[in-house]
Amino acid sequence: MFDIEYMRIEYCGSCLCDYLEIEHGLSSDGISTGRKCGYNPVVYYSFGEILTVLFVSNGENNNWLQGFRATYTKVSYTGVILGTLYLAVGNLPSI
Question: Domain limits of the chain?
Answer without folding.
Answer: 2-89
